[in-house]
Amino acid sequence: MGDHLFEFLLRQGDNTLILSHRISEWCGHAPIIEEDIALANIALDLLGQTQMWLGLAAEVEGAGRSADDLAMLRDAWDFRNSILVERPNGDFGQTMMRQFLFDAYHVELLNRLVSSADERIAAIAAKSLKEVEYHVERSASIVIALGDGSEESHARMQAALDDQWTFAGELFETDAGDHALNDAGIAPLPSELRAGFNARATAVLGDATLIIPETTFAHSGGRSGKRHSEHLGHLLTQMQWLQRAYPGATW
Amino acid sequence: MVKTPDIDTVWQWLDQVPDPEIPVISLVDLGIVRDVAYQGDRVRITLSPTYSGCPATRVIEEDVRTAMRDHGIDQVIINQQISPPWTTDWMSDKGKAKLKDYGIAPPSAKGQPEACPICGAGAVSLVSQFGSTPCKAHWRCEECRESFDYFKCI
Fold first, then answer.
1. Domains: count for chain A
2. DSSP of A166-203, one letter per residue?
3. What CATH number did the domain enclosing A111 receive?
């Protein structure tokens, strides 16, 4: 159970860490200052959540590593985030579509984790949920505004959805470790979150006048760590360079 | 040997420590001080973060240590407690009034500002769901046309 719990906590913390890093790349580059500030604030929320998840992962592992060690000193094959969150930002519409797909999953997950049998997980989930409810409200409203916007913004949002839909499926992938945690009342099966996600996605994307791709294919390999995309290594090179160049540096 | 302060005195000291990002209100007004107690002969202060990634969290810990040291207390234990999660319901009425005087619309159960904190008009509109810090949103008054921060209700 210890290994499954560690793996589960890495999956949570790596999703929030990698997405946080990706959207922080917009800092100073967003189309308008309000969006720049909003993206930086969401990145900050996700980074705070990462500290809690990876902090607990380090505690559960009991190998003397800290949350910082886990974030800054693992290589790509040890990361357990879904491929969706490591993909490059693309244009602002692609970033917001990815954000909405992740937020819609994240809010379903946290809504279940608040009643986890592990009270440490329940506490982190309750803290995170307040922030993530706000994230999904915002990303949904932007997806609707841009999808149901100009011809140009509509075409870009449909392209973003077509491009990213097959990467959302991995969020619901369920393995033996998930079953073990579910049996212990610690976490829901990811596959159980799909119905709530689909309901929200159908409503929001419908309001955005966008068409959900019919394919059920899902890219896979991130949450198992077996096959990340080529983008993760490049992201880590940037995120981890300071600790790699100056091991143990603090301020 | 410094005389051991009673718990109420420590609370009063904490009520004089300003929030680093909104210095018109104190940490007690903000509602992030969960508990003050003695652990043996050391003062133990329990704080709750507002937002999980709030960069002020560490500054706040340092400010609390500094304030206690200024009152002669060197041995302080600071705990961070995330459960139950901080809510704007814990903000004091005194704190809400000070926010308004400072030009920040206080959190409201309506989920939006009650009125423009500058001119008092009720007609306000949302500019952005995030403002200058994670805890605030950016609004505008339709009467005086000034933009202002709204402390989000969570």
1. 1
2. HHHGGGG---HHHHHHHHTTSS--GGGGHHHHHHHHHH
3. 1.20.1260.10
| Cα–Cα distances in angstroms (integers) from residue B129 to residues A53, A61, A114, B25, B55, in the given order | 26, 38, 25, 22, 19
> Vertex A216, ends A211 and A222: CA angle to 5°?
110
Question: What domains, with CATH codes, occur in chain B?
Answer: 7-88 (3.30.300.130), 103-151 (no CATH)
Residue A250 lies in a domain: no
Is there a domain that residue A117 lies in?
yes
Do the beta carbons of residue A15 and residue A23 sit within 8 Å?
no
Residue B132 at interface with chain A, using a CB cutoff of 8 Å: yes
For chains A and B, CB pairs below 8 A equal: 68
Higher pLDDT, A167 or B50: A167
Contacts of A99 (CB under 8 A, 6+ apart): A19, A23, A42, A135, A139
Helix, strand, or coil (residue B25):
coil
Interface contact A48, partner B, CB < 8 A: yes
Instruction: Establish if B107 touches chain A: CB-CB under 8 angstroms.
Output: no
Q: In chain B, which residues have their Cβ closer than 8 Å to the Cβ of A34?
A: 127-128, 130, 138
Domain holding A44, by residue range, is 2-212+220-245
CA pair distance B51, B56, nearest whole angstrom: 10
3-state secondary structure of B138: strand
Sign of CA dihedral B24, B28, B32, B36: positive
CB contact under 8 A, A45 and B134: yes
Is there a contact between B151 and B135 (Cβ–Cβ < 8 Å)?
Answer: yes
Q: What is the pLDDT of residues B127-152, one digit of tens each?
A: 988 888 888 999 999 999 999 999 99
For residue B3, what pLDDT is reported? 65
ipTM over 0.90: no
- Angle subtended at Cα A3 by Cα B79 and Cα A104, rounded to the nearest 5 degrees: 70
Interface touch A127/B83, C-beta < 8 Å: yes
- For the record, the structure tokens of B26 come out as 């104190």
The answer to the question of residue A63 being in a domain is: yes
Q: What is the pLDDT of residues A1-23, one digit of tens each?
A: 779 999 999 999 999 999 999 99
* CA distances to A91, A212, B26, B145 from A29, in Å: 11, 29, 35, 27
